[in-house]
Amino acid sequence: MLDSQRVIFHGEEFHLSDKALFWKHQSVLLVADVHLGKAHHFQKEGLPVSSAIEDRNLDRLDALIAHWNPSKLLFLGDLFHARDNEMNARFAQWLEKNQTTRCSLISGNHDRYNGFSHPLMSILDEHLISGIRLKHEPSRDPESPEICGHIHPAVRLRGKGRSALRLPALVIKGHQMIVPAFGEFTGTHVMELSEGDQVFPVT
Hints:
This protein is of the alpha/beta class and 203 residues long.
């Protein structure tokens, strides 16, 4: 059983679960910044990074699909990290295993270096569902609601003395909802927050 946090954004109900976002009424699972193949990319540069990270990302996707049973899985960009590597073939196998869930990728800046394509996954620039724009990079000053990734948002929580904890988080700033990076091997960016912003840390 996966834990989740209920999130309301522009009148729509979402559930934040393991750094992914399930859009209840649309039966859509939103996942940002998986960065598949990053471990293999670092290995080629001579850095000792475990390949188990890659399989854990796909296993977590399997668990989310089993839990929420979405009709569609939408990647909000940077599904892949860099150029074609072993994870391209591994992800193609994963798509074929999960054919009952329609998959789409909103192309991110890293995806453009990879060039992955597969008949079971459509590639989009942006997507619009129920008046909410889905994209990879956040707009500077959006005038209409949008859901995006790219930033790898995080929040820093401070405790007694000098203790502090940095956690990935979903952040809502006005018309914009920024989804945390899903991949295990990704960095985070601590967001500057203003009055009225909403933050949902992922513990």
